[in-house]
Amino acid sequence: MIVIGGSSSVALAQEIARELGCEFLRASTTRFPDGECYTRLDRDSMDEDVVIVQNTYPDGNLVEMLLIRDAAVGMGAKRVAMVIPYFGYARQDRLFKPGEPMSARVMCGILDRICDKVVTIDLHKESTLDNFSHPHRDLKAAGPIADYFRGKGIDMVLAPDIGAAGRAKDVGGRLGVPYDHLEKTRLSGTEVRIKPAKADCRGRNILIVDDMISTGGTIIAAAAALKEAGAESVAVACTHGVFVGDALERLTNSALKDVLSCNTIESSVSKISVARIVAEEIGRGF
Ligand code: R5P
Question: Residue 268 falls within a domain, yes or no?
Fold first, then answer.
C-alpha cells in the first residue's frame, strides 16, 4: 500500500504512512501560470492499493485530488481510498432556500465515482456520508483532542452550541470532567450571540470544543461570555481550523488561553494529530 499526500495534507499523509508502516509518496503539485493545477507522481508503476490524503477545500484542492487519483489509476493502482481530512461544502447539506444546490451531495457524487472507500473526520453531519455507495467512515477527533489535553488542568468541557453538545460529552467523558453546551444564536455570517452559561463556570479552566472555526465569531463570543461568568481560563480546540481572513490572529489576541486545532487543515496551531485514528481505520481494510 502507498499513502499519497496531496498538497493540503503532506505532513498528515506522511504521519499516516509511518503509522501504517507503508510507503509515503508526495504528489509533486504546481500551478501553471494561468492557475491550473499540474501534478505528478514520481513512480514508474503502482501495482497496489493507494490511499490519497487530500482536502476538498478550497476548490483547487478538489481538482488536485482528481488529478492525483487519475495519475495513480493510470499507473495501475488497484483500489483507491480517499482520506478527506476536511470535507468542503459539508455545511450546505440541505436546502435552506428554494433554488439552492445540495452542495454536500454534489461533492459526495463526485467522490463516489472515483474511489473505493472514503474516510472523513468530524463531518458537519455524519449523515452526509449516506450519499456514498462505497464503504465510508466518519472518524471522531474527540479521542486525539482529549489525549492532547489530558493532564493539562481542564476541569470543564463546553460546546458553543447544541450542535456540538455530543462532542463536549465525548471529550469531557474521556477527561473525566463535567461537560455542557452553551446556547448560540447566529446574527450574521460573522456575528453570534451566546447566552450566559447555565453551568457554574466560576474559577474553572474551561475547554471549548467545536467541529470547526471559520471566522472565529462563535468562539470569541463564547470565550467572552465564559470570562464574564467568572471562568479562570478558556482554551479552544476544534477539529478543522479553517480560520478565514485574520481569524487566527483575532483568536490568539482574544481572552483565550490556548487555540488549538487538529491537523486536518495544517496551520501554526494544528498540533493535535488525527494520523493514528486514520491509520487504524485504513488498517481495517477497504
Ligand atoms: C456551526 O454549526 C459550526 O459548528 C461552527 O460553530 C461554526 O461553523 C463556526 O463558525 P465561525 O467561526 O464563523 O463562528
Answer: no
pLDDT one-digit tens code per residue, 246-279: 999 999 999 899 999 999 999 999 999 999 999 9
Q: What's the predicted TM-score (pTM) here?
A: 0.94
Which domain covers residue 60, as residue numbers? 2-140+274-283
In this structure, the answer to whether residues 74 and 148 fall within a common structural domain is: no
Write the DSSP symbol of residue 195: P
Query: Within 6 Å (CB) of ligand 1, which residues are found?
Result: 160, 163-164, 192, 210-218
Are 38 and 88 part of one and the same domain?
yes
First to last CA, the chain: 11
Closest CA to ligand 1's atom 10: 214
- pLDDT for the residue numbered 238: 98
pLDDT, tens digit, for every residue of 198-223? 888 999 999 999 999 999 999 999 99
Residues 128 and 21 in one domain: yes
Total tally of structural domains belonging to the chain: 2
Mutate-to-test residue for ligand 1 from 87, 167, 192, 210, highest number of ligand atoms within 8 A of CB: 210
* For residues 230-244, average pLDDT: 97
DSSP helix/strand/coil, 18 = helix
The average pLDDT across 223-228 equals 93
DSSP string, 34-86: TS-EEEE---S---S-EEEE----SHHHHHHHHHHHHHHHHTT---EEEEESS
Structure confidence at residue 192 (pLDDT): 86
218, 220, 249, 256: which to mutate for ligand 1, most atoms within 8 A of CB? 218
Does some domain include residue 267?
A: no
Helix, coil or strand: residue 183? coil
Q: 79 and 116 share a domain?
A: yes
